[in-house]
Write a structure and sequence with these properties.
Number of strands: 0
Order of helices and strands: HHH
Number of domains: 1
Strand content: under 5%
Shape: rod-shaped
Distance between the termini: 46 Å
Number of helices: 3
Radius of gyration: 18 Å
Length: 56
């Protein structure tokens, strides 16, 4: 958590107050990144399916 606080230029207590634990930070990062990746996946899938001969 020290590295995260240093890179974010905030106090470690602030991070612990907001997230609670390292596990909660990890879960939040995975949740946020997963949403972005899923959105991108849908865009790419729509592009493929809009082609004249989409793969079966």
């Amino acid at each position: 958590m020290r590295d995260i606080a240093d890179k974010a230029a905030v106090n470690r207590a602030l991070i612990r107050s907001y997230f609670g634990s390292k596990d909660e930070i990890f879960s939040d990062v995975v949740r946020r990144r997963s949403a972005l990746l899923l959105d991108r996946r849908h865009v790419l899938l729509d592009e493929v399916l809009s082609r004249p001969n989409p793969p079966a």
